[in-house]
Amino acid sequence: MEDATMADLFGEAPARSSRWRGGLLVAGALAGATAAWVHERARRAEREHPPTGRFMHLDGVRLHYQTWGSGPDLALLHGNAFYSADLLASGLVQRLARDYRVILFDRPGFGHSSRPRDRLWTPRAQAALLHRALGALGADRPLVLGHSLGALVALAMALDYPASVAGLVLASGYYYPTLYGPSLMVAPVALPVLGDAMRYTVSAVSARLLLGHTVRQAFAPREVPPDFFQQLARELLLRPSQLRAAAEDGALMLPQVRLLAPRYPQLRVPVAVLAGAHDRVVDPDTHSRRLAAELPHSRLHIVRGAGHMVHHAAQEAVEEQVRAVLEDARRPRPPGDTQAAARAQLDALAPDGLATVTASGNPPA
Protein backbone atom coordinates (compact mmCIF):
# COMPACT_ATOMS: atom_id res chain seq x y z
CA MET A 1 0.00 0.00 0.00
CA GLU A 2 2.82 2.41 0.92
CA ASP A 3 4.67 1.72 -2.35
CA ALA A 4 1.52 2.38 -4.37
CA THR A 5 0.93 5.65 -2.62
CA MET A 6 4.46 6.83 -3.29
CA ALA A 7 4.14 5.84 -6.92
CA ASP A 8 0.90 7.75 -7.20
CA LEU A 9 2.54 10.84 -5.71
CA PHE A 10 5.51 10.66 -8.05
CA GLY A 11 3.12 10.17 -10.92
CA GLU A 12 1.15 13.34 -10.10
CA ALA A 13 4.16 15.68 -10.12
CA PRO A 14 4.73 15.57 -13.91
CA ALA A 15 0.99 15.98 -14.43
CA ARG A 16 0.87 19.10 -12.29
CA SER A 17 3.94 20.48 -14.05
CA SER A 18 2.29 19.83 -17.40
CA ARG A 19 -0.86 21.65 -16.31
CA TRP A 20 1.21 24.63 -15.15
CA ARG A 21 3.02 24.76 -18.47
CA GLY A 22 -0.28 24.54 -20.30
CA GLY A 23 -1.75 27.36 -18.22
CA LEU A 24 1.25 29.56 -18.80
CA LEU A 25 1.07 28.94 -22.54
CA VAL A 26 -2.62 29.89 -22.60
CA ALA A 27 -1.96 33.02 -20.50
CA GLY A 28 0.93 33.98 -22.76
CA ALA A 29 -1.20 33.52 -25.85
CA LEU A 30 -3.99 35.66 -24.38
CA ALA A 31 -1.51 38.36 -23.37
CA GLY A 32 0.03 38.35 -26.84
CA ALA A 33 -3.37 38.57 -28.51
CA THR A 34 -4.41 41.42 -26.20
CA ALA A 35 -1.18 43.30 -26.88
CA ALA A 36 -1.64 42.94 -30.64
CA TRP A 37 -5.25 44.15 -30.35
CA VAL A 38 -4.20 47.15 -28.23
CA HIS A 39 -1.43 48.06 -30.68
CA GLU A 40 -3.82 47.94 -33.62
CA ARG A 41 -6.44 50.03 -31.79
CA ALA A 42 -3.81 52.67 -30.99
CA ARG A 43 -2.54 52.86 -34.58
CA ARG A 44 -6.08 53.04 -35.94
CA ALA A 45 -6.97 55.86 -33.50
CA GLU A 46 -3.97 57.87 -34.66
CA ARG A 47 -4.92 57.35 -38.31
CA GLU A 48 -8.55 58.30 -37.73
CA HIS A 49 -7.74 61.31 -35.51
CA PRO A 50 -4.66 62.98 -37.02
CA PRO A 51 -3.09 66.08 -35.47
CA THR A 52 -4.80 69.37 -36.30
CA GLY A 53 -1.94 71.67 -35.32
CA ARG A 54 1.74 72.00 -36.02
CA PHE A 55 4.91 70.44 -34.61
CA MET A 56 8.20 71.73 -33.32
CA HIS A 57 11.17 69.61 -32.31
CA LEU A 58 12.84 70.62 -29.04
CA ASP A 59 15.25 68.61 -26.89
CA GLY A 60 14.29 65.41 -28.65
CA VAL A 61 10.54 66.01 -28.21
CA ARG A 62 8.09 66.20 -31.07
CA LEU A 63 5.77 68.82 -29.56
CA HIS A 64 2.28 69.33 -30.97
CA TYR A 65 0.81 72.83 -30.63
CA GLN A 66 -1.88 75.11 -32.04
CA THR A 67 -2.32 78.88 -32.05
CA TRP A 68 -5.67 80.65 -32.11
CA GLY A 69 -6.53 84.35 -32.40
CA SER A 70 -4.34 87.38 -31.85
CA GLY A 71 -3.52 89.72 -28.99
CA PRO A 72 -1.63 89.23 -25.71
CA ASP A 73 -0.08 85.78 -25.47
CA LEU A 74 -1.93 83.18 -23.38
CA ALA A 75 -0.58 79.63 -23.05
CA LEU A 76 -3.02 76.85 -22.08
CA LEU A 77 -1.87 73.63 -20.38
CA HIS A 78 -4.27 70.69 -20.10
CA GLY A 79 -4.63 68.31 -17.17
CA ASN A 80 -3.71 64.68 -16.69
CA ALA A 81 -5.28 61.81 -18.70
CA PHE A 82 -6.63 64.22 -21.34
CA TYR A 83 -4.91 66.32 -24.02
CA SER A 84 -5.39 69.73 -25.61
CA ALA A 85 -8.64 68.69 -27.28
CA ASP A 86 -10.26 68.89 -23.83
CA LEU A 87 -9.69 72.64 -23.74
CA LEU A 88 -11.06 72.95 -27.26
CA ALA A 89 -14.10 70.83 -26.37
CA SER A 90 -14.88 73.13 -23.45
CA GLY A 91 -15.23 76.12 -25.80
CA LEU A 92 -12.71 78.05 -23.70
CA VAL A 93 -10.08 78.30 -26.44
CA GLN A 94 -12.52 79.73 -28.97
CA ARG A 95 -13.82 82.20 -26.40
CA LEU A 96 -10.39 83.44 -25.35
CA ALA A 97 -9.12 83.63 -28.94
CA ARG A 98 -11.36 86.66 -29.51
CA ASP A 99 -8.98 88.78 -27.41
CA TYR A 100 -5.76 86.78 -27.04
CA ARG A 101 -3.28 84.75 -29.02
CA VAL A 102 -4.01 81.40 -27.43
CA ILE A 103 -1.17 78.88 -27.60
CA LEU A 104 -2.35 75.36 -26.97
CA PHE A 105 0.06 72.49 -26.27
CA ASP A 106 -0.19 68.73 -25.98
CA ARG A 107 2.08 68.19 -23.00
CA PRO A 108 4.79 65.51 -23.53
CA GLY A 109 3.27 62.07 -24.01
CA PHE A 110 -0.29 63.32 -24.46
CA GLY A 111 -2.26 63.79 -27.63
CA HIS A 112 0.23 63.95 -30.47
CA SER A 113 3.35 64.97 -28.51
CA SER A 114 6.12 62.47 -27.83
CA ARG A 115 7.63 61.66 -24.42
CA PRO A 116 11.22 60.43 -24.70
CA ARG A 117 12.50 58.16 -21.98
CA ASP A 118 15.80 59.95 -21.58
CA ARG A 119 14.55 62.03 -18.63
CA LEU A 120 12.03 62.08 -15.80
CA TRP A 121 9.10 64.21 -16.94
CA THR A 122 8.49 66.12 -13.74
CA PRO A 123 6.40 69.33 -13.79
CA ARG A 124 9.69 71.26 -13.80
CA ALA A 125 11.00 69.29 -16.79
CA GLN A 126 7.76 69.93 -18.67
CA ALA A 127 7.88 73.60 -17.70
CA ALA A 128 11.44 73.90 -19.04
CA LEU A 129 10.41 72.41 -22.38
CA LEU A 130 7.29 74.56 -22.73
CA HIS A 131 9.23 77.67 -21.69
CA ARG A 132 11.56 77.07 -24.63
CA ALA A 133 8.62 76.36 -26.94
CA LEU A 134 6.93 79.62 -25.99
CA GLY A 135 10.16 81.49 -26.67
CA ALA A 136 10.39 79.85 -30.09
CA LEU A 137 6.87 81.10 -30.82
CA GLY A 138 7.78 84.65 -29.84
CA ALA A 139 5.75 84.55 -26.61
CA ASP A 140 8.37 86.07 -24.34
CA ARG A 141 6.15 86.88 -21.35
CA PRO A 142 2.77 85.17 -21.70
CA LEU A 143 0.00 84.56 -19.26
CA VAL A 144 -0.16 80.84 -18.47
CA LEU A 145 -3.41 79.03 -17.71
CA GLY A 146 -3.11 75.49 -16.38
CA HIS A 147 -5.83 73.00 -15.49
CA SER A 148 -5.27 70.23 -12.91
CA LEU A 149 -1.77 68.79 -13.47
CA GLY A 150 -1.22 71.59 -16.00
CA ALA A 151 -1.59 74.07 -13.12
CA LEU A 152 1.41 72.47 -11.41
CA VAL A 153 3.44 72.80 -14.61
CA ALA A 154 2.38 76.46 -14.85
CA LEU A 155 3.52 77.05 -11.26
CA ALA A 156 6.87 75.42 -11.96
CA MET A 157 7.33 77.63 -15.01
CA ALA A 158 6.64 80.82 -13.07
CA LEU A 159 8.99 79.74 -10.25
CA ASP A 160 11.86 78.67 -12.50
CA TYR A 161 11.48 81.43 -15.13
CA PRO A 162 9.96 84.37 -13.23
CA ALA A 163 10.93 86.97 -15.82
CA SER A 164 9.22 85.00 -18.60
CA VAL A 165 5.70 84.68 -17.15
CA ALA A 166 3.36 87.66 -16.82
CA GLY A 167 0.78 85.92 -14.64
CA LEU A 168 -0.95 82.65 -13.84
CA VAL A 169 -4.49 81.34 -13.94
CA LEU A 170 -4.63 78.05 -12.05
CA ALA A 171 -7.72 75.86 -12.25
CA SER A 172 -8.52 72.77 -10.14
CA GLY A 173 -4.92 72.15 -9.21
CA TYR A 174 -3.18 69.79 -6.76
CA TYR A 175 -0.65 71.92 -4.88
CA TYR A 176 0.20 70.35 -1.51
CA PRO A 177 1.48 66.91 -0.43
CA THR A 178 -1.74 65.17 0.54
CA LEU A 179 -2.64 61.55 -0.10
CA TYR A 180 -4.04 61.13 -3.60
CA GLY A 181 -5.47 57.66 -4.21
CA PRO A 182 -5.31 57.54 -8.04
CA SER A 183 -1.56 58.26 -8.02
CA LEU A 184 -0.97 55.19 -5.85
CA MET A 185 -3.11 53.02 -8.10
CA VAL A 186 -1.30 53.98 -11.30
CA ALA A 187 2.25 53.87 -9.89
CA PRO A 188 3.04 50.33 -11.20
CA VAL A 189 1.91 51.37 -14.69
CA ALA A 190 4.62 54.03 -14.72
CA LEU A 191 7.45 51.54 -14.13
CA PRO A 192 9.71 50.42 -17.00
CA VAL A 193 9.26 46.84 -18.24
CA LEU A 194 6.45 45.91 -15.82
CA GLY A 195 4.49 49.02 -16.75
CA ASP A 196 5.10 48.37 -20.46
CA ALA A 197 3.60 44.90 -20.15
CA MET A 198 0.66 46.18 -18.11
CA ARG A 199 -0.21 48.97 -20.55
CA TYR A 200 -0.61 46.45 -23.35
CA THR A 201 -2.57 43.91 -21.30
CA VAL A 202 -4.15 44.37 -17.86
CA SER A 203 -4.13 48.17 -17.78
CA ALA A 204 -5.40 48.39 -21.34
CA VAL A 205 -8.50 46.45 -20.30
CA SER A 206 -9.00 48.13 -16.91
CA ALA A 207 -8.58 51.61 -18.40
CA ARG A 208 -11.40 50.89 -20.84
CA LEU A 209 -13.63 49.67 -18.03
CA LEU A 210 -12.87 52.66 -15.77
CA LEU A 211 -12.72 55.51 -18.27
CA GLY A 212 -16.43 56.33 -18.15
CA HIS A 213 -16.45 56.41 -14.35
CA THR A 214 -13.29 58.53 -14.23
CA VAL A 215 -14.72 61.12 -16.59
CA ARG A 216 -18.06 61.22 -14.73
CA GLN A 217 -16.19 61.89 -11.48
CA ALA A 218 -14.25 64.71 -13.11
CA PHE A 219 -17.41 66.41 -14.38
CA ALA A 220 -19.56 65.72 -11.31
CA PRO A 221 -21.90 67.13 -10.13
CA ARG A 222 -22.61 68.06 -13.74
CA GLU A 223 -23.27 65.65 -16.56
CA VAL A 224 -20.58 64.72 -19.05
CA PRO A 225 -21.24 66.62 -22.30
CA PRO A 226 -22.88 64.22 -24.75
CA ASP A 227 -20.25 64.81 -27.45
CA PHE A 228 -17.23 64.69 -25.12
CA PHE A 229 -15.86 61.40 -26.47
CA GLN A 230 -16.41 62.56 -30.02
CA GLN A 231 -14.27 65.63 -29.50
CA LEU A 232 -11.71 63.74 -27.42
CA ALA A 233 -11.21 60.50 -29.29
CA ARG A 234 -11.71 57.74 -26.71
CA GLU A 235 -9.06 55.47 -28.20
CA LEU A 236 -6.45 58.23 -28.21
CA LEU A 237 -6.93 58.48 -24.46
CA LEU A 238 -6.44 54.72 -24.10
CA ARG A 239 -3.23 54.28 -26.10
CA PRO A 240 -0.36 52.71 -24.14
CA SER A 241 1.75 55.84 -24.74
CA GLN A 242 -0.88 58.09 -23.17
CA LEU A 243 -1.52 55.67 -20.29
CA ARG A 244 2.21 55.78 -19.57
CA ALA A 245 2.28 59.60 -19.55
CA ALA A 246 -0.78 59.79 -17.29
CA ALA A 247 0.65 57.17 -14.91
CA GLU A 248 4.02 58.92 -14.69
CA ASP A 249 2.43 62.31 -14.06
CA GLY A 250 0.20 60.82 -11.37
CA ALA A 251 3.05 58.98 -9.67
CA LEU A 252 5.25 62.10 -9.63
CA MET A 253 2.66 64.49 -8.20
CA LEU A 254 3.20 63.85 -4.48
CA PRO A 255 7.02 63.98 -4.46
CA GLN A 256 7.00 67.00 -6.76
CA VAL A 257 4.64 69.13 -4.69
CA ARG A 258 6.83 68.40 -1.67
CA LEU A 259 9.62 70.18 -3.53
CA LEU A 260 7.56 72.96 -5.07
CA ALA A 261 5.25 73.93 -2.20
CA PRO A 262 7.96 75.61 -0.05
CA ARG A 263 8.73 77.89 -3.02
CA TYR A 264 5.20 79.18 -3.62
CA PRO A 265 5.66 82.35 -1.51
CA GLN A 266 8.50 83.34 -3.87
CA LEU A 267 6.01 84.03 -6.67
CA ARG A 268 5.75 87.69 -7.52
CA VAL A 269 3.41 87.51 -10.51
CA PRO A 270 -0.36 87.97 -10.20
CA VAL A 271 -2.21 84.68 -9.81
CA ALA A 272 -5.87 83.72 -10.09
CA VAL A 273 -6.82 80.47 -8.40
CA LEU A 274 -10.05 78.80 -9.54
CA ALA A 275 -11.77 75.65 -8.35
CA GLY A 276 -15.15 73.99 -8.48
CA ALA A 277 -16.90 73.97 -5.11
CA HIS A 278 -17.90 70.33 -5.65
CA ASP A 279 -14.61 69.01 -7.02
CA ARG A 280 -14.45 65.25 -6.29
CA VAL A 281 -10.94 64.83 -7.67
CA VAL A 282 -8.95 67.48 -5.76
CA ASP A 283 -10.34 69.05 -2.59
CA PRO A 284 -10.68 72.80 -3.23
CA ASP A 285 -10.23 73.82 0.41
CA THR A 286 -7.08 71.75 0.97
CA HIS A 287 -5.44 72.97 -2.23
CA SER A 288 -6.93 76.01 -3.96
CA ARG A 289 -8.04 77.99 -0.94
CA ARG A 290 -4.77 77.31 0.87
CA LEU A 291 -2.70 78.31 -2.16
CA ALA A 292 -4.57 81.58 -2.65
CA ALA A 293 -4.05 82.46 1.01
CA GLU A 294 -0.32 81.78 0.74
CA LEU A 295 0.50 83.57 -2.51
CA PRO A 296 1.43 87.23 -2.20
CA HIS A 297 -0.45 88.44 -5.31
CA SER A 298 -3.49 86.24 -5.77
CA ARG A 299 -7.24 86.16 -6.12
CA LEU A 300 -9.53 83.20 -5.48
CA HIS A 301 -12.70 82.10 -7.24
CA ILE A 302 -14.69 79.11 -6.08
CA VAL A 303 -17.30 78.22 -8.69
CA ARG A 304 -20.55 76.97 -7.23
CA GLY A 305 -22.22 74.10 -9.04
CA ALA A 306 -18.96 72.99 -10.68
CA GLY A 307 -16.55 70.13 -10.16
CA HIS A 308 -13.03 69.40 -11.36
CA MET A 309 -13.76 70.41 -14.98
CA VAL A 310 -14.36 74.00 -14.01
CA HIS A 311 -13.27 75.25 -17.44
CA HIS A 312 -16.25 73.43 -18.97
CA ALA A 313 -18.68 74.71 -16.35
CA ALA A 314 -17.72 78.38 -16.14
CA GLN A 315 -15.93 79.74 -19.19
CA GLU A 316 -17.08 83.26 -18.38
CA ALA A 317 -15.54 83.10 -14.91
CA VAL A 318 -12.28 81.79 -16.34
CA GLU A 319 -12.21 84.55 -18.94
CA GLU A 320 -12.84 87.17 -16.25
CA GLN A 321 -9.89 85.88 -14.25
CA VAL A 322 -7.62 85.90 -17.30
CA ARG A 323 -8.56 89.52 -17.92
CA ALA A 324 -8.05 90.45 -14.26
CA VAL A 325 -4.61 88.82 -14.13
CA LEU A 326 -3.54 90.61 -17.30
CA GLU A 327 -4.67 93.93 -15.82
CA ASP A 328 -2.77 93.17 -12.60
CA ALA A 329 0.34 92.28 -14.60
CA ARG A 330 0.23 95.64 -16.38
CA ARG A 331 -0.33 97.65 -13.21
CA PRO A 332 2.77 98.95 -11.38
CA ARG A 333 3.00 97.49 -7.89
CA PRO A 334 3.15 99.90 -4.97
CA PRO A 335 6.13 99.48 -2.62
CA GLY A 336 3.88 98.38 0.23
CA ASP A 337 2.27 95.53 -1.70
CA THR A 338 3.06 92.73 0.73
CA GLN A 339 1.79 89.25 1.33
CA ALA A 340 -0.14 90.48 4.38
CA ALA A 341 -1.94 93.06 2.27
CA ALA A 342 -2.80 90.42 -0.31
CA ARG A 343 -4.28 88.20 2.38
CA ALA A 344 -6.35 91.06 3.74
CA GLN A 345 -7.70 91.70 0.26
CA LEU A 346 -8.56 88.02 -0.13
CA ASP A 347 -10.39 87.95 3.21
CA ALA A 348 -12.46 90.94 2.12
CA LEU A 349 -13.84 89.08 -0.88
CA ALA A 350 -16.39 87.19 1.19
CA PRO A 351 -17.07 86.50 4.87
CA ASP A 352 -15.40 83.09 4.66
CA GLY A 353 -12.52 84.26 2.52
CA LEU A 354 -14.02 82.74 -0.64
CA ALA A 355 -15.01 84.61 -3.76
CA THR A 356 -17.89 82.72 -5.34
CA VAL A 357 -19.30 82.59 -8.82
CA THR A 358 -22.44 80.67 -9.71
CA ALA A 359 -21.91 78.86 -13.00
CA SER A 360 -24.72 78.50 -15.48
CA GLY A 361 -25.96 75.06 -16.45
CA ASN A 362 -27.05 72.19 -14.26
CA PRO A 363 -26.13 72.89 -10.62
CA PRO A 364 -26.22 70.06 -8.11
CA ALA A 365 -29.35 69.16 -6.27
TrEMBL record:
<feature type="domain" description="AB hydrolase-1">
    <location>
        <begin position="76"/>
        <end position="311"/>
    </location>
</feature>
<dbReference type="GO" id="GO:0016787">
    <property type="term" value="F:hydrolase activity"/>
</dbReference>
<dbReference type="InterPro" id="IPR029058">
    <property type="entry name" value="AB_hydrolase_fold"/>
</dbReference>
<dbReference type="InterPro" id="IPR050266">
    <property type="entry name" value="AB_hydrolase_sf"/>
</dbReference>
<keyword id="KW-0378">Hydrolase</keyword>
<dbReference type="Pfam" id="PF00561">
    <property type="entry name" value="Abhydrolase_1"/>
</dbReference>
<dbReference type="InterPro" id="IPR000073">
    <property type="entry name" value="AB_hydrolase_1"/>
</dbReference>
<dbReference type="InterPro" id="IPR000639">
    <property type="entry name" value="Epox_hydrolase-like"/>
</dbReference>
<protein>
    <submittedName>
        <fullName>Alpha/beta hydrolase</fullName>
    </submittedName>
</protein>
